[in-house]
């Protein structure tokens, strides 16, 4: 199987670019952030403080998280319910960041991530895919962009979906999440040594997709 890891901070354009690139390549797109978000949403719904590790971990055995693919689109299922929309609400972002700092939560999702990679040619996006989850991926890309550009992109995305948001608050949240994600002890956000760095600040979505597809095709040709 061809496995491509795409890591980077929130809002660097990973999901949009990876989804389109996967469609062009005919690969499955796996958004691992959505899995952490599903756990965050499960906690919020139970009114569990997402920093309360004991309570978050006690909840895990009650959860059944899976991904289904409908017309190539990933849908996240939480105990049989499609939570693909709920996980995109702004409060789900911080909840996901909080639970993702817990090593037990990461271990809980590892099997699901490995299974998807073993069974599919896939493009998997996250924070630790190249460093921890798929160290043998044929291609690793680390996608970045400035915090301001990322906040603007997230702002446009949420407004387009009809979710009212405040730009400054989004920017602060992005800065806070970057800090959390790159300073945690377990699987901190950092490029793998063999990752290709791609700064998307001045690239259009199309340009990002073209670069990813080009690199993926080269990696797949090398493997063949
Ligand atoms: O990519 P995202 O914004 O949907 O991710 C939500 C949170 O989950 C984010 O704070 C980082 C965390 N995450 C992680 O720790 N490891 C991953 N592989 C993917 C996401």
Overview of this structure, please?
- A hairpin with a 2-residue loop joins strand 4 and strand 5.
- The termini are close together.
- The chain has a 5-stranded parallel beta sheet with strand order 2-6-1-7-8, sandwiched between helices.
- It has a single domain (3-223), classed as P-loop containing nucleotide triphosphate hydrolases (Rossmann fold), CATH 3.40.50.
- Helix 4 (90-100) runs parallel beside helix 8 (167-183) and helix 7 (147-160) packs across helix 8 (167-183).
- It is 52% helix and 17% strand.
- By secondary structure, the chain is α/β, with parallel strands linked by helices.
- The protein is built from 9 helices and 8 strands.
- Bound molecules: 2'-deoxycytidine-5'-monophosphate.
- 2'-deoxycytidine-5'-monophosphate binds at residues 10, 32-33, 36-37, 96-97, 100, 126-129, 177, 181.
- The site of 2'-deoxycytidine-5'-monophosphate (DC) has 14 residues, from helix 2, helix 4 and helix 8.
CATH superfamily: P-loop containing nucleotide triphosphate hydrolases
Strand content: 15-25%
SSE run: EHEHHEEEHHEHEHHEH
Number of helical elements: 9
Q: Report mean pLDDT, rounded to a whole number.
A: 94
Output the keywords.
224 residues, alpha/beta, Rossmann fold, 5-stranded parallel β-sheet, 3-stranded antiparallel β-sheet, 9 helices, 8 strands, binds 2'-deoxycytidine-5'-monophosphate
């Amino acid at each position: 199987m061809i496995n491509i890891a795409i890591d980077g901070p929130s809002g660097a354009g990973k999901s949009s670019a990876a989804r389109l690139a996967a469609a062009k390549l005919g690969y499955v797109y796996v958004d691992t952030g959505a899995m952490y978000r599903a756990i965050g949403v499960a906690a919020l719904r139970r009114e569990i403080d997402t920093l309360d590790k004991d309570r978050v971990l006690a909840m895990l055995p009650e959860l059944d998280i899976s991904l289904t693919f409908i017309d190539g689109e990933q849908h996240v299922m939480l105990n049989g319910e499609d939570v693909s929309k709920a996980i995109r609400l702004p409060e789900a972002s911080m909840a996901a960041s909080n639970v993702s700092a817990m090593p037990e939560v990461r271990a809980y999702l590892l099997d699901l991530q490995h299974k998807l990679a073993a069974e599919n040619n896939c493009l998997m996006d996250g924070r630790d895919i190249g460093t921890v989850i798929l160290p043998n991926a044929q291609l690793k890309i680390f996608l970045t962009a400035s915090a301001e550009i990322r906040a603007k992109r997230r702002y446009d995305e949420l407004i387009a979906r009809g979710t009212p948001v405040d730009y400054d608050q989004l920017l602060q949240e992005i800065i806070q999440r970057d800090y959390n994600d790159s300073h945690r002890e377990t699987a901190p956000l950092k490029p793998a040594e063999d990752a290709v760095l791609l700064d998307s600040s001045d690239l259009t979505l199309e340009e990002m997709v073209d670069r990813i597809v080009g690199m993926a095709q080269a990696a797949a040709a090398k493997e063949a």
